[in-house]
Every structure is written in C-alpha cells, then in structure tokens.
Queue: 4 jobs
Job 1
Amino acid sequence: MTTTIKTLHEWGLGNGERPLLISGPCSAETSTQMLTTANELQEAGIGIFRAGIWKPRTRPGAFEGVGSKGLRWMQRVKSETGMKTATEVANVRHVDSVMGAGLDMIWIGARTTANPFAVQEIAEALKGTDIPVFVKNPVNPDVDLWVGAIERLQTVGIKKIGAIHRGFSAYETSIYRNPPMWQVPIELKRRMPGLPLLCDPSHIAGKRNLLQSIAQKAMDLNFDGLMIESHCNPDEAWSDKNQQLTPADLKVLLNSLVIRQVTPEGASAETLEELRSQISFLDDEMLDIMQKRMEVAKAIGRYKKENNMTILQPKRWEDIIESSLKKGDERNLSHRFIDKMLKAIHEESISKQTDIMNEGMEDQ
Ligand code: PEP
Ligand code: MN
C-alpha cells in the first residue's frame, strides 16, 4: 500500500487499494435520481458517492443546484446503501449545512480555489472539524495558488487534506473541456509528496469518449484515485450531461484500467515503468502541440489562398531552420535531429496548406 493510499484508508476513505473511487452525479436533482444512481454505483463496487448540491455555473440562468434539501437525499443514500458521501462547498453557509448533515468528505471547487478570500473563510469555518477536505486545482494553471489554498487549510489546523486535479480553463479550442496540463499536478505532488492526489477525468474531458484515456493516464502517473461523474440517465442530466456515464458504463471503464505499481516486488524505486509513463505522457503532450500547430498552419493556408500567395515562402523557412538550430544547441539537441524533425513537420504543414489551396478546385 502506498503511503498516501494508507493515509486515505486511515481517514475512512477507500479500502486501502488504488484507485480510491468516488462517483455520482454532477448535481443532485431528485431523490429518485440520487437513490437509483447510488444503488447502481454501490452494486458496481463504488464506495463513495458524490453529488453537487450547490452548483457554481459560468453563466446565470443555468441550473444552480437544488440546495440544502439535497443533503437529506445524501443522508438517505448513506443510510440505504452504506456508501460514504461527498459534496462541494463554496462558502461558510455550505460548510455549516454539510457539517450539520454529517457528510463524510467535502471538496472545494476549482472556481473557489482561485479565490484566496473564499478559501480563507471556508478554512476558518472548518476549524476544529475532522472531515477530509479535498482542494480542486484553481481554474488557472497556477500551482502556487493551489498550494496556497491547501496551506490556508493547514494553517487553521485541518489535518485531512487532499487534492483533486480537474484540468484548467483554456481560451483555445482543444479536445478537452479543461486541458489537463499534467505538469501542474506533477509539480504539486513534487512539492507536497504526502498529499493524497485524485484525478477528476469528467471535468477534464467534458465528454464521455475521453474519460478512459484520462483515467488511465492518471493511474500511470500514480494518482491515488478517481472522481468520475455518473448518472442513472446521463442524457437527461440537468448539468454536465455529455460527460456523465451510467454506473454500468463506469464499471466497464474501471475494469479496463491497468493499475500499475510504482515499485513492483523486487524492482527498484526508479522503475522502467515509471520512466516509460513519463515518456508516454510527454509524447502525448507533443501530439497535442502538433495538432495545434497544424490548425495554425491551416489558418495560414487560408490566408495565403485569399491573398494569392505561394505556399512555400523560402525566406521564412530558412529563418525557422536557423533559429531552431540555435535553440536546439541550447537544449543539447543535435542539428541532424532538429533538421529531420522540422522537415517532417514542414512537410505535413505544406500538405495541409495544399489541401486548403485545392479546396473547391475539383468543382471548377
Ligand atoms: C463538480 O465537481 O461538479 C464541479 C463543479 O467541479 P469543478 O469545480 O472542477 O468545476
Ligand atoms: Mn460537473
């Protein structure tokens, strides 16, 4: 058992095995929705039930949660299924209601973590309590702000603190709702090695088909657990419907995960697996960057077409090669490698731009 999994187990969360699993709907909607989902999750082997009672929404007018009556449904879930219960708190009033209802775990949402005043008030309201508190990353990729929120809780004497990685808001379009930027949680873990760290693939993905690969990556990076949204009827969910799974589909996803150990029996701490997972993670980042680069190349192609410019602009290409070779030197990358890599990228850009130039030609 790793130290952090042992810590979670001591807090009454999980069975001492990785990953710790938390699931349930984005929002509490009705008592039937809560109980049906919880019963199905319990059958699927999930020990901790989540539901949002108060929902921070980006735009006004969206469903903002059922409010404290949802806490009574949480209590029923707890007594009827034996599951532990968890919800989000965003202010002192939420803390007081949740403590009164006897829930087992709370988390501070991404928008709240970004606000030091709000976190300070929540920390003070929690003073003297024993409930495990999980801090989601702030919406912006600022590891200091994340650490700062955790420190505010530590300063008032709270001992059971964990973190949840849920990705970061982005202006650019991406396949993710909130791009994971894995280097940020990795840095948090480096700074606070004893802190249990969970991943929330649902809010990173924003859609079902990405959940499995994100969850697997979190496992490969040795995260302690997963919080994944589920709903008895996801297509009818009142919030985040594209990213919620049925409990049965969640079970399929969980069964597909390969759970690797940091140090298998007889292996040294710096195992090959650990290094390989770092390589895979970096390769994936590189592919994401390539995708973005090709989108930009296409935009340039459209510009060139509209302005009747040639695809190949030799001066520009020479400049790129020259400055990249220099940057490569600073990074200890050989000229031969830089040259080959840039040529391959350039070839792909040119082919994307050629497609754009030729668009509509076959009709003429
Ligand atoms: C949630 O967990 O439903 C939620 C609102 O998450 P976040 O704070 O990560 O957006
Ligand atoms: Mn949600």
Job 2
Amino acid sequence: MEGIFITMEGPDGSGKTTQIDLLKKYLESRGYDIVIAREPGGTAIGEVIREVILNPAHKEMSHMTELLLYASARAQLVSQVIGPALLEGKAVICDRFVESSAVYQGIGRGLGVDTVYEVNNFALGDVKPKLTIFMDLDAEEGIKRKKKQANLDRMEMEDMTFHKRVVEGYRKLATLYPERIVPIDATLSIEEIHNRIVEEVEKRFFMG
Ligand code: TYD
C-alpha cells in the first residue's frame, strides 16, 4: 500500500481537530495505520520551537524569524515523522502545513507567498500533500469560537484585520491550486463536513 498524505488547514477555531479525529477513524476502517501530526510541533524539537513561536512574551520576534522557525519545526517533522511514515505506507494527517505559513506569514505578515513557498520547498524537499482540506470560516466566527477557550497564543492575539487577511489568503490559495486545496464550508454540521472530506479522499486515493 502506498502512503497517503493529507493536510488540514483553516483559520483558528475552524474545527480542524474534530474533523481530523473523524478522518482518522475513516482511514482506519480502510485498513490504514494512521499518523497524526500537528504543526508547529509534532516532534520533541518541534514542540520546543512551538513554545518559542507562540509565547506571548516574545513580542520582539521579527516576521522572518517567525517564518524560519515554522519552517524549522516543519523540516524536523518531515524528516523524523512524515517521511518515514509515508515510506511505510501509512496515512499521515497533518494539522496545518505549508499553507499555514503561506497565509499567516506570507499574507498576514506580508512576507509574500512566493518567499514562503521558496523557503519551505528548500526545507521539505519533495514531501508534499496530495490533498489539503481548507475549513473555510469567516475570521470573526473563528475567533469568537476561540475566545471561549482560556488563553490566546501569540498568533491568536493578532487583531481582526490580520485574521481576515489570513482567511482571504486561504480562499485565494484554494482558487490558485484547486486540484489540491479543497475548501469546505466550516459552518456545516460536523457530519456534513466529514462526508464532504470522505468524498474528496475517495476521489483522490481510492478511485481509478
Ligand atoms: P495552534 O494551536 O495549532 O492553532 P489551531 O488550534 O488553531 O490550529 O496554533 C498554531 C498557530 O500558529 C495558529 O495561530 C496558526 C499559526 N501558524 C502560523 O502562523 N504559521 C504556520 O506555518 C503554522 C503551522 C501555524
């Protein structure tokens, strides 16, 4: 069996985690061993980098430093976890991946999407997802859902203009790469969203 690599994207509070759990169960029923990774983090080194990036005390962090830290955590995750799992024929679901950097750092921070892809292509080599699910949710709604949680991290503390740019960025990427990035209305019910995701997975991995 060939490995499967799927990434899950969307603004903060868009319900990625719930859908990842359901997708995991579905792929298990298809006979796959599953690896779930979250970004930034997913390795011991990556979790330390995550702490540095998201710590609200690190107000002085430059945008380029932020981009490179995300890319470093991702490079480690790919070499230590994702690459080996795919070679073993497993299904890998990653909670955020390169598109998060493209929209948060490339568009939100204004570093430019091309720069972000360039840095990440260098960091990751040829490990690329075949399907990217984009949980499409207005920024206001996402942050409203998040604020019910106690502590906001350094990214979540950004203002609404930033989060709106992020969502617009995702929508733009979905139109630029429609063969890979699939937007799904995140206001639908949990079950409806899951069914849409399964449809896309079957189309890409189990048909033809
Ligand atoms: P996380 O706790 O994973 O948020 P969520 O539960 O919403 O996925 O926090 C990760 C934060 O880091 C999130 O605000 C998005 C941001 N981020 C980037 O800015 N660039 C990136 O490359 C990645 C992976 C995440």
Job 3
Amino acid sequence: MRNLEDLFLDSLADIYYAEQQLVKALPRLVRAATNGRLQEIFESHLTETEGHVRRLEEVFAVFDQEPKSKKCRAIHGIIEEVDEIAADNKKSPTINAALIYAAQKAEHYEIAAYGTLRDWARMLDNDRAADIIEEILDEEKAVDSTLTDLAEEECNQAAKVAVSGEP
Ligand code: FE
Ligand code: FE
C-alpha cells in the first residue's frame, strides 16, 4: 500500500524532470522572442528555473532521498507546442503574444503541481520542504503575472495591429 509520502515523492520526481526540461527549452524562447522586455523575462526565468532544479534537490534531501526524475509526458507535450507555436509565428508581429500564450501554459502546469506539493509537504509535517516549495511557487506566480502584464501592455496590441494592417 502506498502512502502520501510515496505519492509526494513520485510527484516531486515528475516536477523535477519538468524543471530540467524547461531549463533546456527556455533558451529557445529567449531566441524566439523579438520584444526586448520579453527576452529579459525569459532570461531571468531561466535563471530562476535553474534555481528550481537546485531547490527541488534540497526538498529531496530534506526527505533523505537522492534526487529522482520521472519522465513527465505533460511537460513534453507543452514544450512541443511551445516550439510549434514559435515556429508558426516566426517573423510575424504575433510572435511575442504567441510565446507568452505558450509559456503561460507551462507556468500554470507548474503552479498546479507546486500548489499541491506544498500542501502535501505540510500534511507530512515537513514545513522546511513546504517553505522551499512555496518559494518556487511564488516565483512561478510572479512570472505568470509579469507575462500577463506584458501581453496586455504591449504584445497583444502589436499582434492585433499586424492582423488588421492598421496602426
Ligand atoms: Fe519552475
Ligand atoms: Fe516556471
């Protein structure tokens, strides 16, 4: 019979794998973006994401475990779509709005996972792990809202102008 700690550790291995895949994918988003502010956001989130990998290793350590990754098919699907959307909108003024749309799907996947993992860590009376996970969660939420702001302030309008052909 499996217990909550088994479920927690399996799910931790899933998001650990996802973060590693995102470290590989984010440089492609930096290159695909043509809005300078968006490039900066992706670059700084790449640095944060490398930090997420390290902090998840701390969470494994807090549970006396070696870091373990478990192939996450969902993140592969999301990243595949990000690359497809980037290719479809290349050299178009829609590119930055499209990249934000695609990247926010990854952020929401992470936010969903970390919200539950934080709660499970608390249930397991491991406040140290819960606190580390919450720090990661806060960074995911912050970048998500920064992306929303940039879309609303600049990128959606740029994409709309491109469609109508009028300023
Ligand atoms: Fe992350
Ligand atoms: Fe993220």
Job 4
Amino acid sequence: MAKEKQARTSQHAAELIILDQPSIETCFDRADKMKPCPIGHEGACCKNCYMGPCRLVGKDAETTAKGVCGATLPVIAARYFARMVAGGTAAHGDHGRDMAFTLLAVGEGHAKDFKVKDVKKLYRTADILGIEFEGRPVLDVAKDVASKMLEDFGRQRGEMNFLKRAPKKTQERWKKYGVVPRGMDREVVEVMDRTTMGMDADPDSILDSAIRCALANGWGGSMISTDFTDILFGTPMPIKAEASLGIFKDDEVNIIVHGHEPSLAEMIVEAVQEPELIAYAKTKGAKGINLGGMCCTANEVLMRHGIPTAGGFTNQEPAIMTGLIDVFTVDVQCIIPAIVDVAKHFHTKIITSSDKVKIPGAIHISFDENIAKDQARQIVRMAIDNYPNRTKKGSHVTEKFPMIGGFSHEYIEYMQGGSWRGSFRPLNDAIAAGRVRGVVGLAGCDNPRWPSTGVHKFLATELIKNDVLIVSTGCSSAACGGAGYLTPENALENAGPGLREVCEAIGIPPILHLGACVDNSRILTIAAAMAAEGGLSDEIGGMPAVGIAPEWITEKAVSIGVYFAASGVPVIFGGESPVSASKEVTRILTEVWFERYKGAFVFEPDPEQMLAKALEFIDKAREALKLKKYEPGKFGTEKVLMDMAARREIEKTSRAHIGL
Ligand code: SF4
Ligand code: MSK
C-alpha cells in the first residue's frame, strides 16, 4: 500500500505525510478500494429513468444494444457527457452569479467591507457592455455592470453579453452550427431536459446542446467570475509566493482557505493582518498568524496577495495530517467531505461558509456579505483559540518552493510592451519565427485514481524543453508550484533555446500561473487577443495552441474542455475516455468538432502520448498557417521579437513589478 501511494502522489511533501501516517485513510486508499464500475466507466450505463438502469454491453453494443426505452449506446454516452457539461457549467455559473451579486451589492451601497478595487477594469467592462461610465460615480457604474451581466443568467432569447469578445470568425462558426448560448440557466436546464428519458435521441444534437451549455460557462459564468473578481479585489500582477505543504508554521496560528469563491477569503486576508488579532494570537503563545490557501481559493489569494498555497485537490487530507492546521475554512467546490473525518484525528476545526456546502461534523458559519469582515475576524479568533489545543501529533514537513503567480491577461499584454505599447505582437512574432513553438494551457485537477508520478510535472518539463510556452490554472498550477517550476530560473535551466530567450527578455517564468479554474477564461481572452493582433490565425481555431487536463476529475473540467474545443482549441484529457463505449460519440468529439470548430476533445491516458499529440496539434497548426517549421535553436529572421532597447526597458519594468 505504501509503495502504491508513493507512486500515485505527485508531490513529495504529500507523499512523506501519507507514508508517515498509514492508519489514516485518504483519497488514495479509497481510490484503491473503490474500483470503478467498468460499465459506467466507459459511458455504457443509463439510469435516467426507472425502467433502468440499463447497461448496454456486449459485442456490437454500439449498433445493436438498446435500453428499455430504445435508447442506443451513442445516445446514452452523449447524454452522460452532456450532463457532465451541465454540472460543470452550473458550478462555474453559480460562482459567477455570486460574484455578480457581490458587485451589485457594492454598487447599491451594501456589503460595506467590499469595494471596487480596479476601477479601470470596471470601466473597460462597462465599455464592452456599452454602459456609459465617463463622469459617473464608480458605484453607479458597478451597479449597472453587475445588473447587465446578471441578465446573462436568466436570459431566454438572444445572446450572452461577452460572446462578442470572441473573434468574429469564431462567432460565425457558433452561429453556423447553431450553438450560440442564450442564457446560463437556460442552457443548463435545456441539457437536463433534452437528456431525460424520451427526449433527444440524436447524439450530435445532444452534443450541440452540451456545446451551447459549455460556451455559456467559458464566455459567461467563468468570464464574469474572473472579471468581477478582478474588479472587486484587484487585477493580478506578478507576485512572489510559496507552494507545498511546508508552508505551515509550528509556532504560528495556521489557517487554511479552501474552495473557489474568494469573497470570505479576501476578508480573512485582511483580518489576519489586524494588529489586535495578531496581539491576541500572541496572548495564546503563538508568534503570529499564518494564512495558507488550498485548491482554487488558494489561487485567488495567491494571485492577488502572494498568500502561499498548500497545494491542490489531493493535498486536502495531507494538509490536516500535518497536525498544524488550527482552522480549515471552506467555501464552495472540490471540498471532499472526508476532511471532517481526518480532522477528528487532530485538533483542526473545519468551518463551512456557503449555504450550498454543509458537511456533518463541520462548524457552519453562513457567509453574509454584509458582515463579511466580522465573520472573517470570528474565524481568525476561532483559529487563535484553537492554537493551544495543538498537540505534537502530525507529520511536519519543511519542503516548500518559491514561485511567481499573478499573470492576468492584462499583465501578459502589458509585459509585452508596457503601458502604452502593450500588445500581443511580440508573442505572435515569437511564435511565427519559431522561437516559441506554440502555447499549451496546462490545467485541471490532480486525481488520486490515475497512476501518476506527476503527469503535470512531466508535461510541464517536456513542453518547455520543446519551446512551448505554458499558461497554467487550477490545481495544475499548484502541482507545478509544488515542484518548484513556477520561477524564472526554470526557464534558464529547463526551457528550450527559443523559449528561454523570450523568457529572459521579458523576465518571466516559462509557465505563467493565470489563476483558478474559472480563470481559464483568461486563456480565452488571450487567444482572442492573439487572433486580433494578426500574424497567426484570425480566429481562435487554427492557433498553435492546445489545452491539456492530464489528471482531470470534475464536471467543471469537462465543461471547460468543451468550451475550449468549441472555441477552436484542441484539448487532451488524461485517463480513459468516459464515453469510450461509443465510437460515434468519440468520432463527434474528435473528428466532427475539429471539422466544425478546429477544436477537438481527445482522451489519452499515456503521458508520453499526450505530449506527442499536443506537439502534433501545434506543428500541424503551424504548417496550416504556413509558419516557419519549428526547429530547436533555429529561428526565423523575418521578424525580431523586440529590439535591444525595447527589451531592456521591458525587462527593467517587469522585473521591478515582480520584485526581482
Ligand atoms: Fe433505460 Fe431508456 Fe430509462 Fe435510460 S432512459 S434508464 S436507457 S429506459
Ligand atoms: S480546484 S476543479 S480539482 S482544478 Fe479548481 Fe482543482 Fe479541478 Fe477542483
């Protein structure tokens, strides 16, 4: 068992902790015990009505097997896939909705602990929406922007607001194939409706509704969430932080913020800096208060404040097993109920804060944005009061790595030319000349089930060696950070010659941490900006760009994969396909979607093959765009990245920004 665990955990610190405490059950043990149902595993089971469950198995099941109602295997697999997309869209959609309600509350003069921190971004968003902003009070603009975007959730007809941010050609494809999303709630409801017993029996049509639903997430829920979070809490800029389970301190009160929605976490960030609370901690024998993050709430507070991350999804239980966590606060999504059981072995208090997430055994504090700061203070006090209850139990590790996060799409544009000349021209030119072979979005979860010695780490190393610039989000960023890869030095040591030159010129790591899983929407914005810049593809489809989610877990990941594919980015998901039972569904996701959108949804369990396929997609796109053939160390001379004077200026400003 111990050996298996060691081979399965992608982070060294987590391995040490798990191996040290074999009697405590973790997700790795449960993954061993809970063998997946082989029929459900490949998408051949339907339990959408009580004439079933129907299992469509056997030779020629694809063409001959039928459920009691007559549904075929491709229909059942397509329905299953579409429902995963609906689940993921609902999660990101509700996240975006909550952020919109917070912005609305601020605009209406409530929620006094929050404010509009990035007025410029508010104005840019107002401009996109055609809302007058010049000469108006900031809060009035905030109210109008929030109200306008809230329409996106309940709209019945028409188009969602941010779709216009996609390149024209990309939008035309959506219109041509009838997948333009109308409203967030409508698309989720329609997928659920279409996939009930006795409804849509055409796999292609079912999967079209999945695309509509996913686009409502990418260009709706997630984009709203990203932009409104930036408006409320500030648009990220490069910032130093640390990663891994060694971030906890023996002699300080340790608090974890975990989940996805950062509103309460932002208040906790402020509360832990209050002199009265620090003084109170000292009265209990602690030297101070140490705040750390977990999963995507970690990414949010890391991107804006440099709060260290304890890691991604599979680190939840090992974090508690350090014995050092006084309070573990959770908001929404990716919170495994098992943390309550692990916490029983220690003094750790688990606090749930969203009325959508209650776990028996946890303390519930119902988040109210009108008293948010007071609630944050209450949580910090609970942690301080719990500090004296800490025992010697637990596995303390010291391993941690420096990292740099905070690469918003705005900063990526800025770093390529400064405030006045910011553009995507240098990146497009570097790609055209072959210095940068292409771009990969390395995203998604870390999964305890799949054999892994760190697929994120393997891909990160190999891709940058091949001159591929990586933009990372979600738990992939945590995995890369926990491996020490999110530093500029990584470029010098491991990147190919072209990518190294670009990274050195700008002073950036070869892996740019873009934020949480909702911040995959930043990648859409970057891709749209690259298309608008010219010199590569004039739409998102056809760019030398690929998305990879090597250890995906959630329905959110599937929804993200679909919105990338339908926007024109081929995506590669690790593990076996959850719809492998149906050749027809597999054909639609790969061939048909590539034909229609220049994006595809591919499942590939072998990490070496994931790498090979990603490079193949990139090289084929380069060939179709008639770009210089990629050859390591040999760059085109037709375009230069920047002249030396420009490079020096950018380097100076960028390095100053990240304190180097
Ligand atoms: Fe079986 Fe059809 Fe009911 Fe699904 S919807 S459980 S295939 S009868
Ligand atoms: S937290 S969705 S495990 S990335 Fe965003 Fe990580 Fe995946 Fe949850």
